[in-house]
Amino acid sequence: MGAAAAGVLAVTVLGTGCGGGTDDGASGTPAVVSETPTAEVTDTELPFPTEDPYATEEVYETETPEPAGPEAEIDAKAEAEGWAMEEYDLASGFVQDVCEALPTVAINADSRPEFLVNAKYLDGDGKAILQFGLPKVCPKYTDALKQAVSGKFDHWYTSGTYVVSSKPIDGEQTILPGTYQAVGKMDGCYWERTSESGDIIDNNFATSARKITVTIRSSDGQFTSDNCETWKPVK
Q1: Range of the domain at 187
Q2: Are residues 170 and 105 both part of a single domain?
Q3: DSSP at 157
Q4: What's the pLDDT score for residue 186?
């Protein structure tokens, strides 16, 4: 057989094997079937993130309540007790104003307890509000408040004419008997003690003084001071 015939025979045999068998099951080269299982697609979690890493979630800010301070305590107590002061919407505002006034009021005016009384801050619900709130806002003035409430405190006196009396007199400025002292730079300070009839018992006009001491007796009628420093009791 020649080389050309052998090549034709080989092509014929191969063609028969690749074409498969006949309808009657004649033997031939079996078709190759892949045994690799087909992967079933399921809704399983993927091993990598699918969300946009640059996406941002909308953040809603929430109000953080302020911590309750002494003012909040005072207002809550006042509301619970029904306390109120005229001209003040909040009890804490009243306490704050009193605390701001106390440091300077005692320089050339009343003593601090006397200021609280004369300014009528203890009237109505004022006493209850201050007793609860002042120790929380300005505790260093708690003693002054206690003295004001008790009525036992030092009385200071400035310029004016005072009736000498151990008890208050309606419509009159009064001064308690005792020894008083005025301290500071005094140029043109005049003071006098008079009897009930107005006769001068003792007086002095100081053109330049730094300290003046006067004793007022219970038998005196009036005491007058003009352009002097504050008269404070000598202890």
Answers
A1: 160-233
A2: no
A3: B
A4: 95
Cβ atoms of 196 and 221 closer than 8 Å: yes
Instruction: Answer yes or no: do 138 and 189 share one domain.
Output: no
Integer Cα distance of 11 and 6 in angstroms: 9
Instruction: Using DSSP bridges, classify how beta strands 209-216 and 174-175 pair: parallel, antiparallel or unpaired.
Output: unpaired
pLDDT (0 to 100) of residue 13: 38
123 assigned to some structural domain: yes
Contact criterion met (CB below 8 Å) for 149 and 131: yes
CA distance 226 to 11: 144
Q: Nearest Cα to 139, choosing from 80, 99, 196, 188?
A: 99
Q: For residues 48 and 55, what is the distance between their CA atoms, to the nearest angstrom? A: 16
Look over the chain and give the mean of its residue pLDDT values, rounded to a whole number: 82
Name every residue whose Cβ is closer than 8 Å to that of residue 188 and which is 6 or more positions away in sequence: 205, 206, 207, 227
